[in-house]
Amino acid sequence: MSNYEFIMKLALERGFYFPSCEIYADAPAGFWEYGPRGVSLKNKFIELWRRELVRRDGMIEIDGSQIMSKSVFVASGHISNFTDPITKCTKCGSTFRADKYINEKVGLNVPERLNDEELDQIIKKNQVKCQNCNGEFGKVNRFNMMFRVGIGPAQEEAYLRPETCQTIFVDFARIFKTMRGRLPMGVAQIGKSFRNEISPRQSLLRLREFYQAEIEVFCNPNKLNNISKFDEVRDVVLNIFNGSAYDQVTATDAIYKGLVPNKLVAYYLSLLMEFYSKTGIDMSRTRFRQLPSEDRAFYASVAFDFEVETSIGWLELVACNYRSNYDLKGHSSTSKQNLEVVDPADLTKILPHIFELSMGIDRSLYAILEHCYFEDFEHENRLVLKLKPYLAPVSVGVLPLVNRDGLSQKADEIYTELKQDFDAFLDVSGSIGRRYRRLEEIGTPFAITVDRTTLENDTVTVRDRDSMEQIRVEISSLHSYLHNAIRLPNNLRS
Amino acid sequence: MSNYEFIMKLALERGFYFPSCEIYADAPAGFWEYGPRGVSLKNKFIELWRRELVRRDGMIEIDGSQIMSKSVFVASGHISNFTDPITKCTKCGSTFRADKYINEKVGLNVPERLNDEELDQIIKKNQVKCQNCNGEFGKVNRFNMMFRVGIGPAQEEAYLRPETCQTIFVDFARIFKTMRGRLPMGVAQIGKSFRNEISPRQSLLRLREFYQAEIEVFCNPNKLNNISKFDEVRDVVLNIFNGSAYDQVTATDAIYKGLVPNKLVAYYLSLLMEFYSKTGIDMSRTRFRQLPSEDRAFYASVAFDFEVETSIGWLELVACNYRSNYDLKGHSSTSKQNLEVVDPADLTKILPHIFELSMGIDRSLYAILEHCYFEDFEHENRLVLKLKPYLAPVSVGVLPLVNRDGLSQKADEIYTELKQDFDAFLDVSGSIGRRYRRLEEIGTPFAITVDRTTLENDTVTVRDRDSMEQIRVEISSLHSYLHNAIRLPNNLRS
Q1: Is A20 at the interface with chain B, CB within 8 A?
Q2: Rounded to two decimals, what is the model's pTM?
Q3: Could you tell me where the DSSP H helices lie in A179-262?
Q4: What integer is the mean pLDDT of A154-161?
Q5: E strand residue ranges, A66-140
Q6: Can you give the residue range of the structural domain that contains B409?
Q7: Cβ of A109 under 8 Å from any chain B Cβ?
Q8: pLDDT in tens, A379-399
Q9: Interface test with A, best of B67, B192, B331, B340 (most A CBs within 10 A)
Q10: What residues of chain A lie within 8 A of the CB of B62, using their CB?
Q11: Interface ipTM above 0.90
Q12: Same domain, B470 and B329
């Protein structure tokens, strides 16, 4: 089995994630649920994101509707541009995404931007046939990947947002005003987005309904090097990949060498590095891939993908796009609202530009699981998820050594006390070794064992997941012991 | 202005919530965004819910897809039953919800369960006309309130879930197995639900897209009084309203008097009381309304609505329904899967029954805001949101007394240190009194002022929002001072 398959097995059997509506034959592909361990990991990941990006930078966080009006997507360009080329078999009706299908069958590396006629010609020239019935394909046409919904009895046209950032653009004017905004201003949002993928695949990696954590930094394009916060990150090392070669440089040198266009972009790429370095992802297997113009999204003038190496290849976790004023210009002209703001320093009016960090949460969680997955053959083939203690779904297991002599009652008391403030789990059934294994598999950093000594002197053993060492701790100091062992240290306090 | 209007003004101007897509003329009604203060309040409310209900009871939490297959809603009954009667003007095409329209125009109290012919007769008999053009109405027919979406190029029929609980029912078998479940087992979920309301209204109170926090307790119908945890809540007072009279009774007496059918139901109603009593809602203005059979949802055999009194009447925050085995029976027969589980105590096979606590998050937040809203005319007409410290969107403001003499730099240092672990807000502009007012309006429990004494001896003043008293605290102990002042006390620790 590949590591991808190991993680999938673990996810399915231990409550991390599993397919949606799986008891039904008509369950559509590309929809997954988070089980209890996945929910907890996801919530803790989001809290870390809030701490290390939103609070650290003093960003504003909003949470908007997923259904948005048609005008939003006229302005954003999604109605006309957010399409995939599809081709349908004239014999059996099977439909495929044309460019991907050609790549797979002919082995051609078809660029993403070919038009429908060019694709038709390739299909014809290479005699590409339907894989199901060997039938001929009809003409390539366009499939819009947004989900349409009808509002009210009149079924007014609206859409599920294909990216959370549109909410931020549309809400910009009110947020800037009511929050007394000043440029640069970061606005963040966690939420679901929806894309009607033709071929969803690989569990959390290509979903039709997925979680994004997007950050849109509204900025003055004339002051992209006027970023005093840059000094905090000047020595952060960025690993920049231009498609053939790597440059490992500090944020300062990245600007100096022209690898990153300005301080604002370098600052946010550095924050992202610092954030991910706390997630348990092996940072030596990450890179910022600089996208050549033909691979960039239609609105992006500078683009880096933050990528992580996994068992199934390099995975894009964050798209970092300099979107210029594309978004506010579009919304301003479509809505007929003036979205300019005044720079208080020189009283000039500016339509802000935007730099974004568009993070895929589901993919990030997958990458964390894979990078934290270890098989320890020296110790009974134990399988250990070495999650950071502050990200582990269960922080502490409480185990009576045996299920008699009053040990269970004592364990229950300790569990009851701890569960108010910690994700605690009481496990009474099975051998103690088996119970340790179950906790290690889901990444639980600490296991408390209640033994006969506990009844004598009110101490328990606390076992460390990685070293498997045990120390005795007084019950009365368990709470503060765990609090200190699990929390993320404050970088700025001694 | 009514309190509803005061809260609305505050929400719009101070970043709690505001209409979605508001820059566009085609913004559909019934969609709202949470601004930064609303997001923070909501997240803290959800954390309290997790602590006081999910963790306290040892429940399992999942997070599922919002788009679900058609079969799910065939099984649940929503395809056939989740409809509203509508009538359309034959002249101008205006469409109304028939029963509500009749109630409004004729003043009849039309029960929810009349069929279309009965509604037609009332319209005819009372000569009800269109309010827009005085035209005649066509025949009443049914409008399904689910939003339909089409999956993939073939546009396979699927729906946005109208209640989060369907995810829990459909996932039950896997959860029970992989999490080594035992009855009773509570499964919880926070997420969005969608209802295509004909007339959404009153901001957060009737939305087309809204947040639910649902808890589904799977139980053995033969053991509803076999609930050892009941002893924890036996003395919790429940205020039960039968439609005309109130009974204020302990959970124990509620069962004894037959007001609540069994210990399981009484236990969960009591947990709910204990949870809401920590939210800042005035519990003397709450009640459990027992629903008569004609007002219950189609699947409920016993039902209580947890209601809160507000300036616009009693508001339902939580529907507490004993759903019997309606849900699992429907999903079992439609999916052809056996969803029975074995009770390990007597090895009998059981199709679990379900008792649910279906909470509206948006409405709960509204009720909290209204109950915490105070005007203090004795002190410069100050407007104070007396939110519980652990729910306040901003926990602490940091204010230099004046913006010179190095006070701003010192305030900035303190802010930078605190913001890693607290929702802190730095405010340097305006008179100190005005800055206090701004913090009080959004419910900030503490304001730190940096003054000249700070530069001399490294102390600051900490001002309490409600008493307006100030004490001096050393900067080095600010972190632990705030931590203790803001956190919810652990009920079980001394």
Answers
A1: yes
A2: 0.96
A3: 251-256
A4: 96
A5: 67-69, 83-88, 95-97
A6: 377-492
A7: no
A8: 778 899 999 999 999 999 999
A9: B67
A10: 33-36, 39
A11: yes
A12: no
